């Protein structure tokens, strides 16, 4: 990043408190609903989609089929990052964010009316997978834009906190999706698999309407307006990321990896592990994930405030050290088959591992030039997501290799924690070097 860009970025005006609260609400609520839609698919994958869309004589293969369909959304996410990174860096953050939430709402609602394998045969899983891909495209443009909507309006001294506000959308989405599935699953008899699983998908269209309205009524960010007024937006921002800052992109991918990959091992894979391998009812793990999501919300706010005190980089690094330390204990607690200890595992796994997730947006925003913010953040998160989307299937494979012993997926979780810790330390070094060069010049 040049001295000029650092100076221009620092000079950008911030929004007034009342306006900032409205902007933060639009970023948070829209992201929460976007993640509700995206997580809902993952929550349903092992419980519903495996038997209804990927039936077979071997439950493990059926579950892998459902998880691979889940993973398609992550293949599509970089496509969304490219499309919406271009729109967001060239035409503005708000326009991109309105499109992403509308696209997600349509795809999720259509999943709720799909025929199953018993009705439509092979067409059913194909349609399900295609709609999952559309969800992925929408999600690929969401996080970077929502983060910038909040951070580019916030005062510099509070950017860790506002980055965490955006991240609250993830546990809110988890909470809403897990709660909706748990409510539908509590119906008597075969109602859940017969029809009730569709309801959480169908209500999405109403919720998304609210999010579209909120985002339509916020102003473009000051930083983008300044770049546009000075005619300094990139004509091909995604190409420029790969041309001028490929090393930073690689670091960003590594630093963000646990936020996707680790999370989906702890949540999506764990649902299948508890229900299929340990033979426990789905309500146990769903309740644990719900409590874990509440803990995550508390941790995110506290970690955001911590980041404003000690710095985003130090907070993210601290979080990944904790993730590394918790990898094996989380699975050990789940293996006890004790309801209370499983809930404790989810509080640790989903809650404490979120320390790094809170200010990761603030860290990555410092890593990329202002003119490439949307594309840089989006590509970092979603190329990491491309790897992460297959983690439930990979973790299932590790479980099979370890003869259904939990040390297999726990080892995978620990490795991902270490990769993200190394990426974070490298990001901190690059940012420090940028600051030193700016002072020297």
TrEMBL record:
It holds the Pfam family MFS_1. Residues 23-435 form the Major facilitator superfamily (MFS) profile domain. PROSITE patterns: MFS (PS50850), SUGAR_TRANSPORT_2 (PS00217). GO terms for cellular component: plasma membrane. The chain crosses the membrane at residues 35-54, 60-84, 96-114, 120-140, 161-183, 195-216, 249-272, 284-303, 315-334, 340-364, 376-400, 406-427. It is found in: Cell membrane. Keywords: Cell membrane, Membrane, Transmembrane, Transmembrane helix, Transport. SUPFAM superfamilies: MFS general substrate transporter. Signal peptide: none annotated. The keyword Transport applies. It comes from the Bacteria. It is a multi-pass membrane protein. GO terms for molecular function: transmembrane transporter activity. Its main location: membrane. The keyword Transmembrane applies. This is Na+/melibiose symporter. It comes from Geopseudomonas sagittaria. The lineage of its organism: Bacteria, Pseudomonadati, Pseudomonadota, Gammaproteobacteria, Pseudomonadales.
């Amino acid at each position: 990043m040049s001295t000029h860009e650092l100076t221009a970025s620092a000079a950008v005006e911030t929004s007034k408190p009342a306006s900032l609260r409205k902007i933060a609400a639009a970023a948070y609520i829209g992201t929460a609903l976007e993640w509700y839609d995206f997580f809902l698919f993952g929550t349903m994958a092992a419980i519903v989609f495996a038997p209804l869309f990927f039936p077979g004589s071997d439950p493990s293969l059926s579950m892998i089929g459902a998880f691979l369909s889940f993973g398609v959304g992550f293949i599509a996410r970089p496509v969304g990052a490219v499309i919406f990174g271009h729109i967001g860096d060239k035409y503005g953050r708000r326009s991109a964010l309105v499109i992403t939430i509308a696209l997600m709402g349509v795809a999720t609602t259509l999943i709720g009316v799909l025929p199953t394998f018993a009705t439509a045969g092979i067409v059913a899983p194909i349609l399900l997978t295609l709609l999952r891909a559309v969800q992925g495209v929408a999600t690929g443009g969401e996080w970077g834009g929502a983060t910038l909507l909040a951070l580019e309006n916030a005062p510099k001294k509070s950017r860790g906190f506002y980055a965490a506000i955006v991240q609250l959308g993830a546990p809110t989405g988890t909470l809403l999706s897990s709660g909706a599935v748990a409510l539908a699953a509590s119906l008597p008899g075969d109602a859940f698999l017969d029809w009730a699983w569709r309801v959480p998908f169908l209500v999405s269209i109403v919720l998304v309407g609210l999010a579209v309205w909120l985002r339509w009524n916020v102003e473009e960010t000051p930083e983008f307006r300044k770049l546009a007024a000075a005619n300094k937006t990139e004509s091909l921002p995604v190409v420029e990321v790969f041309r001028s800052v490929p090393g930073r992109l690689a670091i960003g991918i590594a630093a963000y990896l646990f936020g996707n990959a680790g999370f989906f091992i702890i949540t999506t894979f764990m649902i299948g592990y508890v229900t299929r391998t340990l033979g426990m009812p789905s309500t146990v793990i769903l309740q644990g994930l719900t409590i874990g999501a509440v803990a995550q919300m508390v941790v995110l706010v506290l970690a955001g405030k911590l980041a404003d005190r000690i710095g985003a980089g130090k907070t993210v690094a601290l979080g990944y050290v904790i993730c590394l330390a918790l990898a094996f204990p989380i699975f050990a607690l789940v293996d006890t088959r004790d309801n209370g200890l499983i809930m404790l595992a989810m509080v640790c796994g989903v809650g404490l591992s979120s320390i790094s997730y809170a200010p990761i947006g603030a860290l990555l925003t410092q890593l990329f030039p202002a003119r490439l913010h949307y594309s840089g953040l989006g590509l970092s998160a979603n190329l990491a997501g491309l790897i992460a989307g297959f983690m439930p299937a990979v973790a299932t494979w590790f479980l099979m290799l370890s003869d259904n012993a939990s040390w297999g997926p726990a080892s995978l979780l620990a490795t991902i924690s270490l990769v993200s810790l190394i990426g974070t330390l490298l990001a901190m070094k690059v940012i420090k070097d940028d600051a030193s060069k700016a002072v020297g010049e």
